[in-house]
Write a structure and sequence with these properties.
Bound molecules: iron/sulfur cluster
GO molecular function: 4 iron, 4 sulfur cluster binding; metal ion binding; quinolinate synthetase A activity
CATH superfamily of the largest domain: NadA-like
Strand content: 5-15%
Distance between the termini: 33 Å
CATH architecture of the largest domain: 3-Layer(aba) Sandwich
Order of helices and strands: HEHEHEHEHHEHEHEHEHEHEHEHEHH
Pathway: Cofactor biosynthesis; NAD(+) biosynthesis; quinolinate from iminoaspartate: step 1/1
Number of helices: 15
Largest sheet: 4 strands, parallel
EC number: 2.5.1.72
Shape: globular
Number of strands: 12
CATH class of the largest domain: Alpha Beta
Enzyme class: transferase
Organism: Thiobacillus denitrificans
């Protein structure tokens, strides 16, 4: 007899309006100089996600910080001696940094910077889902709250999700996956694992349109199509490379194609241009048949980060991430499993086979 808890319905998430910080050169330089002084005084390092503004990415690199994906941001912060971590990104990234660095002060430019995947998966509903399926191992994507990570058996990033699911499948486990239905569906297709999927989605990636992408590819026959697996199946089916943000940047750097059509947040173009100057980058279309996009290849929550807000936080305090210790410690265990798996797989201690 199957459990009474139904597979979740698709949650409706309201996006905030897109408000991007616009600065002239003089204000930009004044703000950056002030931030650098304050960072020194407060022994702080800045870690920024690929989807944040070019100003924040440049500032992170100019001050010895890093620009990366969410897990590498947390890892970098852990290895860096600074007592304060400034996380420019969205809230679950600040939480992940705090989970791995409980002794450090973790602050963010705007604590209201959320993520549609995180919002779509409240901890109490996820707990009920897990409780209804005690025979399944729960695997959650990094884009979740600390409380959801604490309830999960495993946390995965997009770069390692398929390997971990394949490993668990080969061990004979049935799985429960949250929150991104597209990434879960993609992983299920390539691993053949038995997975029950939560129905969340990313507002940016869900908006990419397959028919318009086919047309654009026809117009640019030398272009390679790069797709993040949070995108719909029909878009993934058109990809030359499917991968995490870091893997897509690496593809631009290493593939011989002169042009790339990129289906992920366009904030990543700043790093791609730096990694492969001279290559042409085109946004995958978000308009076309059935278009519903209001964010148009850029995350409205990522756009909440900016230099003005960062100055205000450093001058006035606040916007610090706090996590109850019992939740933090359990979330750490689920993340640690992924880190241990990655290390073991890299060392050749785990063989996944075909
Ligand atoms: S781009 Fe999508 S997955 Fe990333 S933070 Fe924004 S809503 Fe979340």
């Amino acid at each position: 007899m199957s459990p009474a808890f139904p597979v979740p319905v698709r949650p409706v998430i309201q996006q905030p309006p897109m408000v991007e910080e616009v600065l002239d050169d003089a204000e930009r330089e004044t703000l950056k100089a002030r931030i650098k002084t304050l960072m020194k005084q407060q022994d702080a390092v800045l870690v920024a996600h690929y989807y944040t503004s070019a100003d924040l990415q440049d500032l992170a690199e100019e001050t010895g910080g890093c620009v990366s994906d969410s897990l590498e941001m947390a890892r970098f912060g852990h290895a860096h001696p600074a007592k304060t971590l400034i996380v420019a990104g969205v809230k679950f990234m600040g939480e992940t940094a705090k989970i791995l660095n409980p002794e450090k002060r973790v602050i963010m430019p705007d604590l209201g910077a959320e993520c549609s995947l995180d919002l779509a998966c409240p901890a109490d509903e996820f707990t009920a889902f897990c409780d209804a399926h005690p025979d399944r191992v729960s695997v959650v994507y990094a884009n979740t709250s600390a409380a959801v990570k604490a309830r999960a058996d495993w946390v995965v990033t997009s770069g390692i999700a398929a390997k971990i699911v394949k490993y668990l499948h080969q061990q004979g486990h049935k799985l429960l996956w949250a929150p991104d239905r597209h990434l879960g569906d993609y992983v299920q297709r390539i691993t053949g694992a038995d997975m029950l999927l939560w129905q969340g989605s990313c507002v940016v990636h869900e908006a990419f349109k397959a028919e318009a992408l086919k047309k654009l590819r026809t117009e640019h026959p030398d272009a390679a199509v790069l797709v993040h697996p949070e995108s719909p199946e029909a878009v993934i089916a058109l990809a030359d490379v499917v991968g995490s943000t870091t893997q897509l940047i690496e593809a631009v750097r290493t593939l011989p194609n002169p042009e790339f059509i990129v289906a992920t947040d366009n904030g990543i173009f700043h790093k791609m241009h730096a990694a492969a100057p001279g290559k042409i980058l085109l946004e995958a279309p978000t308009a076309g048949e059935g278009a519903t996009c209001t964010s148009c290849a850029h995350c409205p929550w990522m756009a909440m980060n900016g230099l003005r807000k960062l100055v205000a936080v450093l001058e006035n305090g606040g916007n610090e991430i706090h996590i109850e210790e019992s939740i933090r410690a359990r979330a750490r265990l689920s993340i640690q499993k992924m880190l241990d798996f990655a290390a073991a797989e890299k060392a050749g201690h785990i063989q996944l086979g075909d």
